[in-house]
């Protein structure tokens, strides 16, 4: 993938300058944060898409496969996939249907709840997600273009934003071992 030539000025810094010049000073920092995070998401998603393209996987499909591969038995209730990926049930259902169609997962009846279904990783799905993970690790995750300290700080900042939005609660403290 050919990288475009860098712009001579940061357009997001210019947007913030314009926000302030138009009297929206109280909103300028927020606009800059939102716009910066959304642009960073575009840049990262383009890299992820390029790494997953040879595997015919979207990031959503990869996430479901990786989550199933991380589970002890390679299967999870559909409701657990929805909760852990923090997406709408319709999105997971649609993604799961494509994964089933492609032979990467199968639907199984839930052993204790006749109304629920399990998603189970097939051997083909497991092999594919392992290869796709190696690709993402080497082509994207190992070198994001920032230091490890910057990455840790960014994750911490975004985690505080997510927590304040109600995305998660801190885990309960674990008791001291006896």
UniProtKB/TrEMBL annotation:
Superkingdom per UniProt: Bacteria
Domain HTH marR-type: start-end pairs: 30-163
Gene3D superfamilies linked: Winged helix-like DNA-binding domain superfamily/Winged helix DNA-binding domain
Keywords assigned: DNA-binding, Transcription, Transcription regulation
UniProt xrefs under InterPro entries: HTH_MarR-typ (IPR000835), MarR/SlyA-like (IPR039422), Tscrpt_reg_MarR-type_CS (IPR023187), WH-like_DNA-bd_sf (IPR036388), WH_DNA-bd_sf (IPR036390)
Pfam families associated with the record: MarR_2
Coiled coil: none
Protein name: MarR family transcriptional regulator
Organism: Microbacterium aurugineum
């Amino acid at each position: 993938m050919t990288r475009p030539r860098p712009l001579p000025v940061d357009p997001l810094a210019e947007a913030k300058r314009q926000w302030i010049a138009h009297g929206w000073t109280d909103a300028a920092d927020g606009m800059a944060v939102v716009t910066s995070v959304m642009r960073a998401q575009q840049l990262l998603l383009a890299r992820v898409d390029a790494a997953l393209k040879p595997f015919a996987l979207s990031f959503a499909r990869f996430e479901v496969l990786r989550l199933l591969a991380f589970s002890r038995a390679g299967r999870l209730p559909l409701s657990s996939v929805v909760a852990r990926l923090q997406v709408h049930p319709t999105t997971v259902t649609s993604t799961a249907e494509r994964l089933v169609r492609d032979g990467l997962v199968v639907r199984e009846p839930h052993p204790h709840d006749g109304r629920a279904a399990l998603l189970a990783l097939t051997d083909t799905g497991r092999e594919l997600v392992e290869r796709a993970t190696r690709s993402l690790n080497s082509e994207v995750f190992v070198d994001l273009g920032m230091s490890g300290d910057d990455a840790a700080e960014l994750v911490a900042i975004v985690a505080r934003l997510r927590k304040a939005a109600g995305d998660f609660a801190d885990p309960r403290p674990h008791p001291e071992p006896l």
